């Protein structure tokens, strides 16, 4: 059994969701979101997110982490800020020696719903179907659980590809 944390980075809210995977069986563990103070300087907000994600990692001790890749927005400033938040979030598991995998938004949706351009409501519905005991606390934590589910589906193939590349 492997414990996976999915992370959906954001500067205001960063969602997290934890599942356990044993073969094809998925078990809900917890979900939630961490927040930064909107009126704080950017560096402080990034530190707040980083520290809170570290606290979640210490509490739940996942074996692996998965994060959504940044999509390029029309607003370059917003994209840059999201990228900075993503870096602060990614650094937390890396500091603890937890491997981090990245997935494109369409790959996550396709893994959970079966369609790469699925709507948020479809993702929420399928997360609830796949993890019936899930609390689904926030939209961000639902996305994080979807990221964890995607990783659970792809981790075996990814590990095999990495092993083959090393040999």
Structural summary, described in words:
This protein is α/β, with parallel strands linked by helices. It has a single domain (2-166), classed as Ribonuclease H-like superfamily/Ribonuclease H (Nucleotidyltransferase, domain 5). Helices cover 51% and strands 22% of the residues. It contains 5 helices and 5 strands. The protein has helices spanning 42-60, 76-95, 105-112, 120-130, 139-166; strands at 2-8, 13-22, 25-35, 64-68, 100-103. Strands 3-2-1-4-5 form a 5-stranded mixed beta sheet. Helix 1 (42-60) packs parallel to helix 2 (76-95), helix 3 packs across helix 5 and helix 4 packs across helix 5. The longest helix is centred in the last third of the chain and has 28 residues, at 139-166. The chain starts with a strand and ends with a helix. The model has no long low-confidence stretch (mean pLDDT 90).
């Amino acid at each position: 059994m492997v414990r996976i944390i999915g992370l959906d980075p954001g500067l205001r809210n960063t969602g997290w969701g934890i599942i356990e995977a044993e073969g094809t069986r998925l078990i809900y563990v917890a979900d939630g979101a961490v927040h930064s103070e909107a009126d704080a300087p950017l560096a402080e907000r990034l530190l707040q997110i980083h520290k809170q994600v570290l606290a979640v990692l210490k509490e739940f001790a996942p074996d692996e982490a998965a994060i959504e890749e940044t999509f390029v927005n029309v607003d370059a400033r917003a994209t840059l800020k999201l990228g900075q938040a993503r870096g602060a979030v990614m650094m937390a598991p890396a500091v603890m020696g937890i491997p981090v995998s990245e997935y494109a938004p369409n790959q996550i949706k396709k893994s959970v719903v079966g369609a790469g351009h699925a709507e948020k409501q479809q993702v929420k519905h399928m997360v609830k179907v796949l993890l019936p005991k899930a609390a689904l606390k926030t939209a961000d934590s639902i996305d994080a659980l979807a990221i964890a589910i995607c990783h659970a589906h792809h981790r075996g193939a990814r590990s095999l590809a990495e092993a083959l590349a090393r040999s």
